[in-house]
Structure formats: structure tokens, C-alpha cells
TrEMBL record, chain B:
Keywords: Heme, Iron, Metal-binding, Monooxygenase, Oxidoreductase
Tagged with keyword Oxidoreductase: yes
Protein name (record): Cytochrome P450
Keyword Endoplasmic reticulum found: no
Protein family: Belongs to the cytochrome P450 family.
Matching Pfam families: p450 (PF00067)
PANTHER family found in the cross-reference section: CYTOCHROME P450 YJIB-RELATED, P450, PUTATIVE (EUROFUNG)-RELATED
Species in which this protein is naturally found: Actinoplanes palleronii
Region (Disordered): 56-89
Length: 66, 396
């Protein structure tokens, strides 16, 4: 599974960081998303999906790896 | 055709009509106080769609933007610079990103020790004073005001000026001309404050903004005054109302209050549920359609207004199980109490931190807290744009 973030769509609300700080951080200057782990496993998979659901700007997508 | 805005008759429930609209007529037309019509959308899915679609503009200065002010009371127009709240792409993104670094989860976490001190000081003062005390005056209003003043870099000596004038801006009893005067005084004050920071910009939010926009070659004091004003106004009464209403919800649900006191790890979840349950900013979240768009099988045309009713969306059974139950343990983070899309509340993580600290500290330090007036006699803000309670006498 892969987590893809589109920093151009991101509005910096930080909902992803609240959901899972091990997966996401925010750029200290402009607040946009930084993905810390693009290929999460275990519990983090569910957290990545939750983050994509609460992200207000649909900046996050979770795609199954192939 | 329904006349808007509708009134909340119970502090715990949305206006009665919302449920029926959401079920039978989820995208429908209503009449506004000025006689014009607007669309309202009530389903969680549709509210999120509208707020995240650039076909809907946030330009509140546009003559066709849906206006909920009582008839005969046009919004006061002024010559101030626009703020991010009313901007659309491509201006909105850069304006918001210029200040986002101040509101990241990490940045807000660094402010927590100071927020804790502020909350403790207010509680010390309340506990040392007479009983009953008005929670609104003693805690709900001063905490967010002091926090934002310190962030912006308003000198401590001027806090009283700020308290007095922001209170006048938001109190129902304030006559219209006095309200306008208070707005003017706060703007003038900010203008002077910022001018005073220009020579040697200090290490506070306003000072850092001066340096940053100078480095980018686009420093403009009028824009910074508008930003300061927006931050001051957007986060003050909203957070204050949530402190009061959240406390009320806990007092009304003693078992959940005990559970929270026993396990502060639950507070963040409880705060999300309070935000969802009360959705104090409801009809204010509106848009103006700028390109024909289909929502729920209905075509909304360019030039038409839309109210995205967060309080209806946050009680949508498609999004929340048993939506009318207050349950601090439920997953609630997908609520739209902070809006959705590019304008989703910039200060949300600041508000979350303030609320979490307030409830944790209040439960721990004032375990015997109770209302000194029956709930039905509390003066709720059923007539205001942002829901809340004017006064809340408590004792302990
Ligand atoms: C519990 C407290 C709060 C609630 C319920 C709340 C609610 C909201 C909502 C619903 C919006 C979206 C408006 C729209 O889309 O038209 C918003 C935007 C905004 N809020 Fe908050 N807010 C709160 C606290 C704060 C705080 C503490 C601050 C900052 C100090 C703040 C600053 C802002 C700003 C600057 C915007 C405009 C963002 C933009 O247009 O991009 N808010 N808020
Ligand atoms: S939740 Fe979405 S918009 Fe918010 S910071 Fe994360 S990616 Fe950006």
C-alpha cells in the first residue's frame, strides 16, 4: 500500500498529523503535508485510510500497491 | 418556502426542520431575511462536496452572497483589505500558506505549557472569587482572548483594551453604532501596533509576518491588519462558546464526565464530539455558486447562494451512528464543525488544544462544579449567528 499526498491540494489543516504523527508531518514554513512513511504496514495502514477520509481537501490518497 | 435562519429551541438539538430537510429535501431553496432565496444543503456528503468545489466562491463581499443579517441591516462595508476568509483561488492559497506555519500541529503543541498557565490563572481567580461565578466571564471569554493576544504579540498592558472592545463587538446588548465603533478601535489599534513593530520586527506572529512578507517583497500593513483582525475575531467567541457549551454537555452527562476525569486520554475525542454535537457555526458557512454544478441530482446555477448547514450534516445518520446521542467515545473527527475544503478552520488545532486543556483542568481542579441556574433558564444565543450561551452561572 502506498500513501500519496498532493501538496498543491493540501490546505494545511493538520488532520492527517492528528490522525497519525508517525505517518504525517507538516512543513514548518507553509504547513503543508509531509509524508513520513510512504509504504506503511500494520496498524498504520488503517491510520492512513482514516487520514484520507478526514483530510478536508482530498489531498491524500491511499492506493493498493501492485 | 422555509424562512431562514431557523431557531434552535433546545441547546442540544438542531432546529426541528433540519432532520426533515435532510431526509426528504436535502438540496432545497429557502427564503432569507432580505427576501432573496438561497439553496440549503443538509447531508454530510453534499456539504463536503460544496465546500470542496471551486465552483462555489467564498467571496462574502459579493453583492449576491447569501446574507443572513436581519432585513434592513446590510453588512457594514469598509475599506479594509480582504482577508483569506473571503478569498478564492488563486489568491486564497498563498494568503493562507503565509501564516499556516504558525498553526501547525507541532507549533501549537509548543504553546501548550503557556496555555496551561493561562487556564490555571483564570481558574485561580475564579476559585478565589464569589460564588456563583459566571463561567463565560471568568473562563470562556478570557482564555482564548489571552492566548491569541500573546500569539499576535499584543502587550500584556493592552489586554484590557482588547477584552473590553472584543466583548463589545460580540455582545448582543451592544447597540449597532457602538459595535461599529469597537470594530474601528480594534482595527486602529492593530494598525498602530503593527506600525510599531515595523522598525525591528519582534519574534511574535505579527513580527514574523512582517519579516516574511518583506523578504518576499510584498509587505503591506493593511493586509496584516486584516489578518490580525481575522485571527482575533474568528477564534475568540467561537472557542469561548465551545468552552461554555462543552462544560454544559459534561454537566448534563455525569457518567461521561466521570469517565473523562478518570482518563484524560479521552479528552481529545470528547472535544471532537462536542464540536460535532453543537456545531456552533452553522448558517455562517455559506458560498456563492460561480459555475453551474449538480449537487444531489439538483443543478445549482451560477449566481445562486448556498448555505451548507453543518449542524444538519453533523447529525446525518449516514455519517454518524445514532447522531442525536452525545457520546464522547464515538469517532467524530469527520464532522464539519470546522467547515471543510480549503477554508477549513485555520485555527482548529489551536482551538482543540485550548479546549482540551480547559476541560482537563476544569474537571481536575473543580470536581464539584455544577450549574447555579437550571439549564432551561440559561440565556442561549438562539438569535446570534454563532451559537452559544451569554452567561452561565456556576458554583462548586
Ligand atoms: C471551536 C472554535 C472554532 C470553530 C467552531 C471554528 C469554526 C470555523 C469554521 C466553520 C470555519 C470555516 C468558514 C467557512 O468555510 O466559510 C473557520 C474558518 C477560520 N477560522 Fe475558525 N473556528 C474556531 C476557532 C478558531 C481559532 C482559535 C482561530 C484562530 C485563532 C480560527 C481562525 C479561523 C480562520 C483564520 C478561518 C478562515 C480560514 C480560511 O478562510 O482559509 N478559528 N472556522
Ligand atoms: S489533512 Fe489533508 S489538507 Fe490537512 S495537512 Fe494533511 S494532507 Fe494537508
Amino acid at each position: 500500500m502506498r500513501v500519496i499526498a498532493d501538496p498543491h491540494r493540501c490546505v494545511g489543516a493538520g488532520q492527517c498529523v492528528l490522525t497519525e504523527p508517525a505517518l504525517f508531518d507538516q512543513d514548518p514554513e507553509d504547513g503543508t503535508v509531509i509524508v513520513l512513511d510512504e509504504n506503511p504496514s500494520g496498524d498504520l495502514v488503517e491510520a492512513a485510510r482514516d487520514a484520507a477520509l478526514v483530510c478536508p481537501s482530498q489531498a491524500l490518497s491511499v492506493v493498493d500497491s501492485w | 418556502m422555509l424562512q431562514f435562519p431557523l431557531v434552535r429551541h433546545c441547546p442540544y438539538a438542531p432546529p426541528e426542520e433540519y432532520g426533515q430537510l435532510r431526509e426528504k429535501d436535502p438540496v432545497t431553496r429557502v427564503r432569507l431575511p432580505d427576501g432573496r432565496e438561497s439553496w440549503v444543503v443538509t447531508r454530510h456528503e453534499h456539504v463536503r462536496q460544496v465546500l470542496n468545489d471551486p465552483s462555489f466562491s467564498a467571496d462574502r463581499t459579493h453583492a449576491d452572497f447569501p446574507n443572513l443579517a436581519p432585513a434592513g441591516q446590510p453588512l457594514p462595508r469598509d475599506d479594509s483589505a480582504p482577508s483569506m476568509l473571503t478569498m478564492d483561488p488563486p489568491e486564497h492559497g498563498p494568503a493562507r500558506r503565509a501564516v499556516l506555519g504558525e498553526f501547525t500541529v507541532r507549533q501549537i503543541a509548543a504553546l501548550r505549557p503557556r496555555m496551561q498557565q493561562i487556564v490555571d490563572e483564570r481558574l485561580d481567580a475564579m476559585l478565589a472569587g464569589p460564588r456563583p461565578a459566571d463561567l463565560v466571564e471568568e473562563l470562556s471569554l478570557p482564555v482564548p482572548s489571552m492566548v491569541i493576544c500573546e500569539m499576535l504579540g499584543v502587550p500584556y498592558a493592552d489586554h484590557d483594551f482588547f477584552q473590553v472592545n472584543t466583548a463589545a463587538m460580540i455582545k448582543r446588548e451592544t447597540p449597532q453604532d457602538e459595535r461599529r465603533a469597537a470594530f474601528g478601535r480594534v482595527r486602529d489599534y492593530l494598525d498602530e501596533l503593527i506600525a510599531g513593530k515595523e522598525d525591528a520586527p519582534p519574534d511574535d506572529l505579527l513580527g514574523r509576518q512582517i519579516r516574511k512578507s518583506r523578504a518576499g517583497g510584498d509587505y503591506d500593513r493593511r493586509s496584516l491588519v486584516s489578518l490580525g483582525f481575522l485571527l482575533l475575531v474568528a477564534g475568540h467567541e467561537t472557542t469561548a462558546n465551545m468552552i461554555s457549551l462543552g462544560t454544559l454537555a459534561l454537566l448534563g452527562n455525569p457518567a461521561q464526565m466521570d469517565a473523562l476525569r478518570a482518563d484524560p486520554a479521552r479528552t481529545l475525542g470528547a472535544v471532537e464530539e462536542m464540536l460535532r454535537y453543537f456545531t456552533i457555526v452553522d448558517t455562517v458557512v455559506a458560498r456563492l455558486c460561480v459555475a453551474d454544478t449538480e449537487v444531489g441530482g439538483v443543478t445549482i446555477r451560477a449566481g445562486e447562494g448556498v448555505l451548507t448547514l453543518g449542524q444538519a450534516a453533523n447529525r446525518d445518520p449516514e455519517a454518524f451512528d445514532e447522531p442525536d446521542a452525545f457520546d464522547i467515545g464515538r469517532p467524530a473527527r469527520h464532522h464539519v464543525a470546522f467547515g471543510f475544503g480549503p477554508h477549513q478552520c485555520l485555527g482548529q488545532n489551536l482551538a482543540r488544544a485550548e479546549l482540551q486543556i480547559v476541560f482537563d483542568t476544569l474537571l481536575r481542579r473543580v470536581p464539584a462544579l455544577r450549574l447555579a441556574t437550571p439549564v432551561e433558564e440559561l440565556p442561549f444565543k438562539s438569535d446570534a449567528a454563532i451559537y452559544g450561551v451569554y452567561h452561565m452561572p456556576v458554583t462548586w
